[in-house]
Every structure is written in C-alpha cells, then in structure tokens.
Specification:
- The protein has 124 residues and is α+β, with helices and mostly antiparallel strands.
- The chain is built from two helices and four strands; from the N terminus they run αββαββ.
- It has a four-stranded antiparallel β-sheet with strand order 2-1-3-4, with helices on one face.
- Strand 1 (45-55) and strand 2 form a beta hairpin.
- Helix 1 (11-39) runs antiparallel to helix 2.
- The longest helix has 29 residues, at 11-39.
Length: 124
C-alpha cells in the first residue's frame, strides 16, 4: 500500500519567501529612515539607553536618547525630536528588550545591543 509522506518545501518556495521577507525589511528600513530624517534631518544613528535617576529621593528609570550624524556627532534636536525617535523605534521593534541599551544604524536598518566592550589591547 502506498503511504503519503510529507516532503520538504521546494527550494523555489523558500527563495520566494526569503525574497518577500527581504523586500518587507527593505521597505521598513526605508520608512524608518525617512521618518527619522523628518524628525531630525541628518540622523545616521540613534542610541537609546535606559538610565536610573534619583528625583526627589525616589529612584526612577528614564531613557537617554542620542541622535547622531554620519560623523558620530550629536545633532541639535529638541526634546520632542528625541522622544519621537524613541517612540518610532519602539513601535518598529516591539520585541526588543528596551531595558537594555540599543543603537539603531539608519543606513543598515539594524537595531543592536549597545553594550560597552573592552578594547582588544586590554584583553588578557
């Protein structure tokens, strides 16, 4: 008797699904780049760092946002622009752990953990 067995998805179907995912990511990267440019023209990198402050004797968690240009220099932007950039990235990447520091590279569209590391010379 013949029994049916599941087969692996054809490679062409996987390629189509991969291309669809790449187009979707590319579109998202473009939208985020355009919106960040409207928020603060020239933004090349956004750094978001949670910090603990002590206001009125009560510890609170605040968020520090840095909008940097292509040279790594901070852009002159008001508080509303920093808040808008933070909100945009939090909505674009809802699964990210925002209790840790992150850096978003506008050109690459990559959100990465922004943890300090030791230079190679100091490793023993």
């Amino acid at each position: 008797m013949n029994t049916t067995q599941p087969t692996a998805a054809p490679r062409a179907a996987e390629a189509v699904a991969g291309a669809h995912a790449a187009r979707k990511r590319h579109a998202l990267t473009g939208v985020i780049a355009r919106q960040l440019d409207q928020i603060a023209p020239g933004t090349a990198r956004v750094r978001i760092v949670p910090v603990t402050t002590d206001r009125d004797g009560e510890p609170r968690i605040a968020t520090w946002v840095s909008l940097d240009d292509a040279l790594g220099l901070p852009l002159k932007a008001d508080r509303a622009a920093h808040r808008a950039a933070r909100g945009l990235l939090r909505r674009a990447f809802p699964a990210a752990d925002w209790t840790r520091a992150h850096a978003y590279d506008v050109a690459a569209g990559d959100l990465a953990l922004d943890a300090p590391t030791l230079p190679e010379e100091l490793h023993q």
